[in-house]
Every structure is written in C-alpha cells, then in structure tokens.
Amino acid sequence: MLTEKLNKESNKDLNRTLSEEFSSNKSNTVQSSSANSAENDAYVLGLNAAGLLAEVVGFETEEVVRSAYGTDIETYQGRHFIDFTGGIAVHACGHNHPEIVAAIVAQAQQVLHVSDTMRHAPQLELAHWLRNLFAGILPGDPEDPYTFLFKNSGSESIDAAAKLAIKATGRHKLAAFEGAFHGRSMLASALSRSKTVHWQAYEDFLNPLRANIIHLPAPRCSGCELRRDTAECCANGLEALLETHGSEIAAVFIEAQQGEGGYMPMAPAAGKKIRDLTRKHGVLLIADEIQAGCGRTGRWFAFQHLGIEPDIIVFGKAVGGGLPLAGIAARKELMERWQPGEHGTTFGGNPIACAAGLAALKIIARDGLVERAAETGAAIKARLQPYIGRFGIVEVRGNGLMIGVELRDAAGQPDYARCEAVKLKAREAGLMLLTCGAKIGKPSVDNAAIRLIPPLNVAPDVVERAMIIFLAALQDDLAQAA
Ligand SMILES: Cc1ncc(COP(=O)(O)O)c(C=O)c1O
Questions:
Q1: Are residues 218 and 316 in the same domain?
Q2: Residue 37's pLDDT band (boundaries 50, 70, 90)?
Q3: Do residues 124 and 45 both lie within one domain?
Q4: In the chain, fewer beta carbons within 10 Å around the N or the C end?
C-alpha cells in the first residue's frame, strides 16, 4: 500500500529541494498558505463547489491550486503534489520560475497590449532570439532566414500553418497521420486522429471539411500490423497518396513524436522518407512541435531526431514560459507568400507572453536544459527498464523528458482503465501524472500510456521520489485488481 509516511517524506524532500531552488527569490513568491485566511480558503472552495465552470475540459482533480513553484503544487485543500504534468508540457523551467515572473512584472509596467496595430520590443526580441536559434540548428540559406508569426494557442497556429500552406501552394488538401493530435479548433479537430471522443460529437460538421483531409496510417512500428520493422514503410501510405494526388496536396502534418496519441516517436528513416516524398511532390512539410518542442525531447525540436528540415514549424506550450503563446516559423521566402490581411490576430504575440517566453528560452539555453532533458530522460528510462514485463508495462518510450509508459492487459489490449487507476493512485500519494494514448478503435493505432513530463530542470531527488510513488502506484493497483 502507498503509505502516509511515503507521502510525508516526499513532501519533506520536495520542500527542501524547492527551498534550495527558490531561496534567493523569496520576493517573487506568492503568500504562503499560513498567510491565507481560513475564511478566504472556505470562500474559494465554496466557489469550486458551485458548478461555475464547464466540465467539458475534463479537470483532472477537484483540487484548486493555490500556488506552484518548480515541481511543487500547493492546493487550497491543503495538499502538496509533485507535478509531473507541467500544465500539460508547458513548464519547461518549472512553475513560476522567478526570472520568468520578473520578466512578466517588468513588461507589465511597460505595455500590456497593442495587437497588430504596432510592433513591440518583446515580440521583436523573441523573434530575433528564435531566428538565431534556427540559424544554429537549421543553417540552410542564410539569405532566407526564419521569420515568425505569433498566436495565442497551438490550435490557432495549426490553422495558421494550414492557411499558409494552402496560400503558398495554391493547393487545397491536407494530409495528417492516424494517432495525431493537432488541437481543438474545427480544423485541428478534423486533422486529429488520436481519440474518437475529440471529434465524434461534431462529425456531421467535420465530415465535409474532411473531404480535403487525408489520414495516413500511423507512422510507427509499435503496434503496426505490418510489423516489417523497416521504418520507411511508415511512409508507404503517403507515397501512394502523393503518386496519385500529389498535385492537390498542400501540406502534410507530422509530429516527430506523437503526443496525445501515445508518446510515439517516429523512426528517423520514416521521417526522412516523408521529407523526400513531400519535396519531390512540392508538398509542404509541417512539423507540429507544440508539445515536443523547446527542448522537451532532449533536442530543441523533435524533428531534429529525424535529421530533417520541415517547411513550417508550429510551436506552442513551453515557448510562452507559462503564458499563452504559440506560433509558426517558416523561411522568409515562404512566409512572404502571404499578403497583409490574409491572416491576423488580436492577442497573438502579446507583449507579456513574449517577454515571458523569451525569459524561458534564455533559461533553457543558459542552464543547458535541453541536454539535461536528454540526460534525465535517459536516467528515468533506465530506472523503469527493469519493470518492463511487470505491472502491465509493455514499453517505456519517448525521447528526453517526453516519456510514455505503455500499459496493456493480460490479453494484450491497451489498458486505459489501469492507466487511469495508476494515475489516481499516484495522485493520492502526491504525484500528479497524465495519461495519453490513441483510442480510435484500430489495433494498429490504439495504445494506453502514462506520460512523464516533468520540467526540464527537475532535480534528481524529485525524480527518484516520483519514481518511488509511480512504481508503488503500479504495484498497488495491480495488487488491488488481483
Ligand atoms: C502536438 C499538439 N498539437 C497541438 C496542440 C493544441 O495546442 P493548444 O491546446 O495550445 O491549442 C497540442 C495540445 O496539447 C499538442 O500536444
């Protein structure tokens, strides 16, 4: 059983790590729980019980966050959690990194918002920083450098990438892969193929849109019925499509490591073949790096694991340092095929979000967090390796700190129920986890996994504490089920 002692020790240990990490930044922290009146706590918890918020988003817990630092979340209910969810892979530098908070405060004193009416310094500085980053990782033609369009969310940025591809190519069809998740806007929902629940309620509206969307077999060997283990065969569906309809296809969307669909990395050989095919047919390759980007996979971008250069890169989540920021990157020549007015935004690239994002990226670079993600991720995978074949674990996969632990039942079926049960057990013991995995009723695509996405700077002792809780939750849940 998961013991109270373990929970207490975990929080004690966590508090020590946190106080070390943040001791020099007390002024940036919000008030401690003792400073909050019991009356205020009761008020907030009363609001929480009043059914004020739409439940459609599927809140993970009834807990209400009071404050969060690093990997620690404190709630109004008086609990502490080690957070291995990071606001769904957003907090690369941990919650409320003091330098990000300071950048937000400083920018708030300058300008909050101007929209597309005027350029502003934080967006220019962020774009400049990103251009230099791209010049380093994708040298290509220095005369045609990377240029950026900033938006508020990943989904919006997927829409933007599709619009640019359609405009630039003069073609009207898009291709995406089974198992993919590209977001929640109507277009992103139509493109996505990771969970039926994401689209089935809107099927009648989405179907006409899908006349221009082709879904290709999931690009992975794991679970594939062909089981050829020659990674290029992942691109066979695309090859056939482009041979017959290549001149109609504007773009192919890829996730170099599928996120929501089960933390499935694409094989480099498949990525290379997809790149070659798209180039051959004048089709743009759009890399969705919304979840996998900004160092999460142990490289700045997950497509680097494939050794390719996409035409459009979509980024989000971690790029805003905790504030809503996302966007697309493309070389200038491509971006300039858009005319002013063909796309726009009210809030996208907001000054405060850009200032926060720039601060976060600078921390990631300065503190070597990309390399650290690779090292910590390898250590976590090594730690879990001996348990493959036990507790229902069939695979521990993923790059860097984007790790999926796949669970199957005795019949070899994806064990969605156990993933949920383990997640809840871990939470009881003070560790916040999320699940992932495709669920579309297709054996070659479906899988059930628990995702491990701590901040890139997670301390080794916090990782170990989390692993103890996680493994105990797996064991405990199995014991209960027996
Ligand atoms: C790979 C990927 N693409 C797109 C999105 C959608 O981003 P957003 O929720 O910011 O709209 C997500 C969100 O989880 C994602 O993981």
A1: yes
A2: confident
A3: no
A4: C
Our mutation pick for probing the ligand 1 site, out of 60, 85, 181, counting the most ligand atoms within 8 A of Cβ, is: 181
Q: Which residue is closest in CA terms to ligand 1's atom 5? A: 183
Residues 357, 383 within the same domain: no
Assess whether 336 and 440 both reside in one domain: no
Residues 6+ apart with CB under 8 A from 72: 14, 15, 18, 80, 81, 82, 83, 95
Q: What is the CATH number of the domain that holds 316?
A: 3.40.640.10
Q: Are residues 117 and 66 in the same domain?
A: no
**Order of strands, edge to edge, in the sheet holding 431-432?**
65-69, 72-75, 80-83, 431-432
Q: What is the C-alpha to C-alpha distance for residues 89 and 456, in angstroms, rounded to an integer?
A: 10
Please tell me whether residues 121 and 47 are part of one structural domain: no
Task: Kindly state whether residues 362 and 414 are assigned to the same domain.
Answer: no
Please state the domain count of the chain: 2
Query: 154: Cβ below 6 Å to ligand 1?
Result: yes
Strands ordered across the beta sheet of 249-254: 146-151, 326-331, 312-315, 284-288, 249-254, 173-177, 213-216
With tokens 């530098």, the residue in question is 93
Q: What are the Cα distances from residue 212, in Å, to 171, 195, 246, 250?
A: 10, 20, 13, 10
Stretch among 164-178, 232-246, 262-276 having the lowest mean pLDDT: 232-246
Q: How far is the CA of 464 from the centre of ligand 1 (A)?
A: 29
CATH code, domain with 436 = 3.90.1150.10
pTM of the model: 0.92
Q: Which domain holds residue 90?
A: 4-96+368-481
Distance CA 282, CA 39 (A): 63
Render pLDDT for 164-191 as a digit per residue (tens, 0 to 9). 999 999 999 999 999 999 999 999 999 9
Q: Are 45 and 64 in contact, with CB atoms under 8 Å apart?
A: yes
- Identify whether residues 116 and 166 lie together within a single domain: yes
Of 348, 366, 384, the position where a domain reaches its end is: 366
Question: CA torsion sign, 76 to 77 to 83 to 87?
Answer: negative
Q: Is 83 exposed, middle or buried (0-12, 13-18, 19+ CB in 10 A)?
A: buried
**Cα 452 to ligand 1 centroid, rounded to whole Å:** 17
What is the Å distance from ligand 1's center to 179 Cα?
A: 13
Q: How far is the CA of 190 from the centre of ligand 1 (A)?
A: 14
- pLDDT per residue over 149-166, tens digit each? 999 999 999 999 999 999
184 Cα: distance to centroid of ligand 1 (angstroms) = 8
